UniProtKB/TrEMBL annotation:
Any single Gene Ontology cellular-component annotation: plasma membrane
Domain ABC transmembrane type-1: 68-285
Membrane-crossing segments per the record: 7-27, 67-92, 104-127, 154-178, 213-236, 264-289
GO biological process: transmembrane transport
UniProt cross-references to Pfam families, sorted A to Z: BPD_transp_1
UniProt keyword terms in alphabetical order: Cell membrane, Membrane, Sugar transport, Transmembrane, Transmembrane helix, Transport
Similarity section: Belongs to the binding-protein-dependent transport system permease family.
Cell compartments where the protein resides: Cell membrane
Cell membrane listed as a keyword: yes
InterPro entries per record: ABC_transporter_permease (IPR051393), MetI-like (IPR000515), MetI-like_sf (IPR035906)
CDD domains xrefs: TM_PBP2 (cd06261)
Membrane topology annotation: Multi-pass membrane protein
Protein name: Multiple sugar transport system permease protein
Length: 294
């Protein structure tokens, strides 16, 4: 009887939080799935059911396909750069934790993550500026001609990867530092007695034991990469603030279809595709890292 009362009390205690979570998180997802099967212009009360027509149109929409390709390249590019770089930097900071400069390095690396996206993107837009940017000025020292960083489709994607990696690195390093501090020191001492070098201890001890951290960081980084928007909008916008077409990403394409073209159902189908991609990639990451961890 006492156990039953505790269960009832626990359920009643979490009901308000569960209700708020369902309203704020679950309901929007379900409603987006519903809207993706309808045609709606945001203004009309009528929402005719059109089935999978929105999804069929997506497959022939070149703007959507370009946005999908750009977003995928950016997300995986940021993932490939961030994970190994963050692990190495965190390992170096942890290894030299007694240094009086360690706190400075931790703060300096984490600052880009907490800086507002728009000012940070504006600063990088100036860096990538083809005429006045310091990047081209630096490259000119080595005889490299000025590059149209934000006007070339390939170079603009590279710029996005650099900017997003710079922002994601601080959070990844912080999480890896927490992971390094939780590792047993006795294993490293035993490895050192056996003649293992610092590099060997890193690859054969730290990397395997940090796989749960790597899984978490990789999922968060990949999801953030697929949801990138503000950086692309600022880098690709012209002097009047109008968004350009060079760095077209999925979220930007969704917002334009929603609030510029008033195609809510079509934008909802894009959101469903994005949700499916993120879910599939997350499941793949969990599967791969669990298999390697056995």
């Amino acid at each position: 009887m006492l156990t039953r009362k505790r269960w009832i009390f626990a359920i009643l205690a979490i009901l308000p939080t569960l209700a708020i979570f369902s309203w704020m998180r679950i309901y929007p997802i379900v409603d987006t799935l519903r809207l993706s099967l309808h045609k709606w212009d945001l203004l009309s009360k009528k929402k005719p059911f059109i089935g999978l027509d929105n999804f069929r149109e997506l497959m022939s929409d070149q703007l959507f396909l370009d946005a999908l390709v750009n977003t995928s390249i950016i997300a995986f590019g940021v993932l490939i750069i961030t994970i190994p770089t963050a692990m190495v930097i965190a390992g170096l900071i942890h290894h030299r934790s007694t240094s009086r400069f360690s706190a400075f390095f931790e703060t300096a690396i984490f600052i880009p993550y907490i800086v507002s996206l728009v000012p940070a993107a504006m600063a990088w837009k100036w860096i990538f500026d083809a005429r006045l940017g310091p990047l081209n000025a630096f490259l000119s020292i080595f005889g490299i001609s000025p590059q149209p960083w934000l006007f070339d489709p390939v170079l603009s994607v590279i710029c996005m990867i650099i900017l997003c990696s710079w922002q994601a690195l601080g959070y990844a390093v912080l999480i890896y530092l927490v992971g390094f501090k939780s590792l047993p020191v006795s294993l490293y001492e035993a490895a050192k007695l056996d003649g293992a070098t610092a590099r060997q201890s890193f690859w054969h001890l730290s990397v395997p034991m940090l796989k749960p951290i790597t899984l978490y960081v990789s999922v968060v980084t990949l999801v953030s990469g697929f949801n990138v928007y503000a950086q692309a909008f600022v880098l690709a916008s012209d002097s009047q603030g109008a968004p350009g077409r060079q760095v077209r990403v999925l979220v930007l394409d969704m917002l334009e279809n929603s609030f510029r073209n008033y195609r809510i159902g079509y934008a909802a189908s894009e959101a469903v595709v994005l949700l499916a991609i993120v879910l599939v990639l997350t499941l793949i990451q969990f599967t791969l890292l669990r298999e390697k961890g056995r």
